[in-house]
Write a structure and sequence with these properties.
With 250 residues, this protein is of the alpha/beta class. 47% of the residues lie in helices and 14% in strands. Bound molecules: NADP nicotinamide-adenine-dinucleotide phosphate. NADP nicotinamide-adenine-dinucleotide phosphate (NAP) is lined by residues 12-13, 15-19, 36-39, 58-60, 85-88, 108-109, 112, 135, 137, 177, 179-180, 182-185, 202.
């Protein structure tokens, strides 16, 4: 980053969890963070705390995203970092998922990242060495229901964008977290089980993201030992299906 160039980051879902932890760290390093989300109160609270800005915006609403990106570009002609982090959970199987929720998962977790990447492209191109970080999931690499399907789509988007944006001078980092204890994805129920040790906090993920950005990485798993889950799914899908079949009641 050339000295003197303002560093502006747009963080979707930036008021809580992983997005908030990342925004706090970026602000501590002198970045101006613009937080996007649907609920104004938590956005305003964190923006005040870190000396940042916020925009109420549903990333699933393409026109709203376009509007916010256009108005933001008047204030900040160049955006150095876009973090596509907004996401919703969906703990259910395909056969029992509420149809509305199945659609919403795709609109928020996948299409939200696409609409933001497209809308903020002019501002990203106006910055030098701009980066896009897509917060995907280990669930994007393993077949476990409608949430996982939305994350598979977002993963394909993120990997494709890495290729499409590189000639434009924009690098993409794909982040695949495992279990992270946050507001939308509470993991307390695992604390007394064998899976409890698999859970990390949002600060841990934010630190790994900043380290990966510093090292110019293109894709990370957080923690790194989740990566073999993706290999097993790719190399032995039958074994994964048998394992899931055993853990799911008939
Ligand atoms: N926690 C985990 O175990 C885990 C694991 C792997 C991946 N991830 C991914 O990490 C990302 C961040 O999640 P988190 O764990 O930090 O949970 P979180 O604290 O619930 O954060 C999600 C954020 O997204 C915002 N959001 C949700 N829908 C939105 C929409 N339509 N438009 C704009 N903002 C929206 C929420 O704010 P509003 O409700 O105010 O809009 C919230 O601030 C998500 O993409 C999630 O899928 C999480």
């Amino acid at each position: 980053m050339p000295v003197g160039e303002p560093r502006v980051a747009v963080v979707t879902g930036g008021a809580t969890g992983i997005g908030a932890a990342l925004a706090q760290r970026l602000a501590g390093k002198g970045w101006t963070c613009v937080l996007l989300g649907r609920r104004e109160e938590p956005l305003r609270r964190l923006a005040d705390e870190i000396g940042g800005e916020y925009e109420v915006c549903d990333v699933a609403d393409r026109e709203a995203v376009d509007r916010v990106a256009a108005s933001l570009q008047e204030r900040h002609p160049a955006v150095t970092l876009l973090v596509n982090n907004a996401g919703i959970p969906g703990r259910s199987d395909f056969l029992d998922v509420d149809p509305e929720r199945a659609e919403q998962l795709i609109r928020v977790n996948y299409l939200g990242s696409l609409w933001c990447a497209r809308a903020f492209l002019p501002a990203l191109e106006a910055a030098r060495n701009a980066k896009v970080v897509n917060i995907v999931s280990v669930a994007g690499t393993v077949a476990i229901g409608p949430y996982s399907a939305s994350k598979h789509a977002q993963l394909a988007l993120s990997r494709s964008l890495a290729v499409e944006l590189r000639p434009r001078g924009i690098r993409v980092l794909t982040v695949n977290p495992g279990l992270v204890h946050t507001e939308g994805f509470p993991q307390e129920h695992l604390s007394d089980s064998a899976f409890g040790s698999l859970v990390v906090g949002p600060d841990f993920v934010a630190d790994r993201i900043l380290r990966a950005l510093g090292r110019g990485r293109t894709e990370i798993f957080v923690p790194a030992w989740y990566r073999p889950a993706a290999w097993v799914q790719a190399l032995a899908p039958g074994a994964v299906a048998r394992l899931r079949g055993r853990s799911t009641p008939p």
